[in-house]
Write a structure and sequence with these properties.
single chain; alpha+beta; three-stranded antiparallel sheet; 2 helices; 40% helix; elongated
């Protein structure tokens, strides 16, 4: 497991939901109105693509620590 921080700035995907990818077959989505499970292959693929894009934006290690330090002052 690794923790990445996504810096503020333009993103290719806008999303307000939280989602958790369990594997290639299951995604759980948390919305204001409830929690949903996605297991249709096409829908899971969308979330896997979103996760890949967000992972590319994330920074780790010293760069992530610097962003966190700046955020908390």
């Amino acid at each position: 497991m690794s923790l990445g921080v996504i810096p503020l700035g333009p993103r290719t995907r806008a999303g307000v939901e939280n989602f958790y990818v369990y594997d290639q077959n299951l995604v759980r989505i948390q919305l204001l109105s409830g929690r949903f499970t996605v297991n249709a292959p096409g829908d899971v693929a969308e979330y896997l693509a979103a996760f890949a894009e967000l992972s590319e934006l994330a920074v780790v290690g010293d760069e992530a620590r610097a962003l966190i330090r700046d955020a908390i002052g």
